[in-house]
Amino acid sequence: MKHRTFFWFFLPTATAMLLFIAFPIVSVVIQSVYAPHSQVVVEVENCGPFGCTRSSSVDQAATRALREAEPLGRFVGLEIYLNRGHLAVNEIADLWRNAPDLATFTNRLLRLPFYGALAFTLTYTALVTPLSIMLGFVVALSVNALPRVLKGPTIFFSLLPMIVTPLVGGLILFWMIDSRGVLGAFFQYLTGDPNLSVKASTPMMWAMLIVYGIWSTAPFAFVVYYAGLQTVPQDTLESAMIDGATRWQRIRYVMLPHLLPLTTFMALIKLMDNFRVFEPIISFSASAHAQSLSYFIYSDLGGETRLLSSAAATSVLTIVGIIILLSPVLVRTWRNFGKA
Amino acid sequence: MSSVANRRPLGLKLMLGSFLVLWLILAALPFLWTLWGSFKVEGDFFSRADWMQALTGPLTLAETGSTVTGQGYYGAWVQEQFWRAALNTLIVTVSVVFISLTFGTLGGYALSRSPYRYAFWLLILALVFRAMPPITLVSGYLLPFFEWNLWGHLPTTIIVLVAINQPFTLWMLTSFFRNIPKELDESAMVDGCSRFQAFRHVIIPVMWPGVITTGLFSFLLAYNDFAVTSMLLSSENLTMVPKLASFLGTTQTRGNVMFAVASVVSVTAPLFLLVMFFQRQIVSGLTAGAVKG
């Protein structure tokens, strides 16, 4: 295809991505180094018969004029990144000097909002990705063993947790584990504690969010592995059998190596998706116990006061995180294909 | 044809079978439970006394005179005007699917037919864009959209969702287009078609399965989105998912959480039908990129 034809075919999609993906990234970076204008304060001296008093008041007109003239705000450089809501450099230095031991230090560090959100996001990503892939693999093995008639309906029901809107799936689970829901009642019965509530406990909330994550992503792994299992060469399996390989050895040394490229692909996709974990925190109203980076941005953006600069700084930090996460893949692609 | 390697002893079969039953309960029961419970009153679905009430519904009987009630649905759809949100969702999803596929087929076709290296790097760039969490992009939109008065309207949200959709659509369609032999468009061009005519009259007709599968995923992305629609739409233009979230904030305090339960079921029902009719396409779509590596 000629460059010229390529250009015209690719133009619409390139324009869309440039305007609404590349440009916002630039916009986020710019916004994160500007802070909103503070109000213009004027001091007025009122002189009466009993002497003069000075009072300061907000000059509304001047404030509005300033905000309209420079909608971005005033340039503050890296200040927003370093403040308490984000990287909190000074606070960490303080903590480090004053904390008696490492455990106290970590504990206090995680109470800083950004580091708390980062810790949850990383824990969630690190646990949900491998666990959901493993669960999906076992489900795929089991479905593969089913008679043909049962496969269709089984796949149908297995797909549901993944297809359903994340916010909705989260709510459905949350209502069941609510202290007045059926699973909540079951947990209370198991532990013998009638006041047990997921909403009141941070570790339980984290556990439930991770369970939700596994529940909603395992179907993807299942479908991909199920399709992959259909392509495992039967001859190799049979010859492995003749050579005396046990069932487990056949899985370990024939199937798994065959499925390895699929696993890498899936792990990559799921790392990206789990890192943006967001909706379940809203569904579970978990923000008191667990915040993710995405939720952190969302709560800055929403509400009466839209903290655009703060959200922008967190966004930039999140994007840096994503790029670090993707860098092994990018570097490998660069090495394999970039040279020629 | 069953290979010897596929034979399994009875014990293993039972183990796999019971594991599968457990998984199916986990996967399907929450939906059935919520569907059933949406026809009860709050006191039954969220019962402090006995979880069995959600099944039998004694309070529903006492309050409404029947064990099944449509109060939640009436409250959500009529009183809180959920129908308006459903209409908005329809507009948004149909437009997003249509525009995404138009842009995506053009771009994907170009990528699949270009022998040059930049086509490969464009795909890698699309992968990086695919990795961006939508909410980080949203924080980039808000200021310019406020400044230019674009905020709150459906068309803005539609084009934003199309753009966020593009990387994925491109990847999927490129892999589908690569399966169609180049000789097909080349012979059409030898017969006097322009590149665009070959694309429009020769390639697209054989591409329908791929286009439909990709369309399904565009639909799912637009339908399931919360981050973009909740931040970019004004309250009268909300689609179903953010509208549902707004029930949680305002009506939970009033004790009308059943509105939210009813709308959860309403949002899930179309997805249920979608999976039922298009299961094959969804499975092939999920594996299209993966299996070929």
Any overview of this molecule?
The complex is a heterodimer of chains A (340) and B (293). By secondary structure, chain A is mainly alpha-helical. Among the domains of chain A are: 64-109, no CATH class; 127-290, MetI-like fold, CATH 1.10.3720. Chain A is extended, with a radius of gyration of 27 Å. In chain A, helix 6 (113-144) runs parallel beside helix 10 (202-230) and helix 11 (234-242) packs across helix 12. Chain A has a two-stranded antiparallel ribbon with strand order 1-4. Chain A contains 15 helices and 4 strands. Helix content of chain A is 71%, strand content 6%. The longest helix of chain A is centred in the middle third of the chain and has 32 residues, at 113-144. Chain A has helices at 3-31, 60-69, 79-82, 89-98, 102-109, 113-144, 148-163, 166-177, 182-191, 202-230, 234-242, 247-275, 279-283, 293-301, 308-337, and strands spanning 34-35, 41-48, 51-58, 74-75. Chain B is an all-alpha fold. Chain B has a domain at 83-245 and 274-292: Orthogonal Bundle (MetI-like fold). Chain B has 14 helices and no strands. Chain B has helices at residues 10-37, 42-45, 53-56, 58-64, 71-79, 82-113, 117-131, 134-147, 154-178, 182-190, 195-224, 227-232, 240-251, 257-292. The radius of gyration of chain B is 24 Å and the shape is globular. The two termini of chain B are 27 Å apart. The relative contact order of chain B is 0.12. The mean pLDDT of chain B is 87. Classes of the chains: A mainly alpha (340), B mainly alpha (293).
